[in-house]
Amino acid sequence: MMQPVSMLPPSLSMLEQLPGCWGCKDKNSVFVYANSEYCRLVGLKHPQECIGKTDHDMPCPTIACADQFQAQDKQVMETGKRLRVLDIHPYANGRWYAHLFTKTPWYDEAGNICGVVFCGQELSDTAILEVGHWICRAVTHPEDHPLDAPSHRPDIHLTARESEVLFLHLYGKKPQLIAQTLGVSVKTIENHFAHLREKFGVESKAALIERALALGFGSAIPERLLSKQVSVVLRD
Question: In this structure, which of 49, 69, 75, 177 has its CB flanked by the most CB atoms within 10 Å?
Answer without folding.
Answer: 69
